[in-house]
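Open question from group meeting: does this chain pack into something compact, or does most of it stay loose? Before anyone orders reagents, we agreed to write out a predicted structure and look at it together. Recording both the input and the output here so the notebook holds the full record.
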Amino acid sequence: MKRYVGLLTFVFLVLLFGCSSDKYVSLPYSIKNAYKNNNVIDIYCGNKYYNLDKLESFISSVKNGEKEKIRIVSYNYDERLGKLLLDYPEHIYDLSFDGKRINIIIYNTMSSSENKLIKTDSKSFKAINKIESKNDTQYVIESNNDRIVILSAVKNGCIDDNVQKYIEEKLKEAD
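Structure tokens returned:
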């Protein structure tokens, strides 16, 4: 009988933990959820970012050799439709620092089904840098010849004041 209970426990644990994975992110993943979860929020084609202080804190932790995790969620403003797509992110970056390397998992809509973002890449990098120019501020992870811009904060985006107000209202609903 003990063997049977042990076997059932083992099977249950395998099903519980073995089947959960980081291969996808379920959708919708609304801007309200991202905000509640303290994710960095990037509205593509925008000039407003939310929780950017979390990214600055991550950079500081990396420079100090402290372990840290962060998620960056990018939503798209579809100019053709003239609307924000605030429940279905364009992509998600999960970054973690283990004290030595920055690991990134990229989830992208380019390979997604309707209800999930598929994991498209997983890499490791040595450094994260903030590069400021006249037109934007880029946050870049890099190692040797490999480089990924994880966020580009443009100075003058294409989103008008009405759209900004709409975003602010959605985020107030999250509080």
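Observations to bring back to the group:
The chain has four helices and eleven strands.
The helical segments are 2-18, 31-36, 52-63, 161-174.
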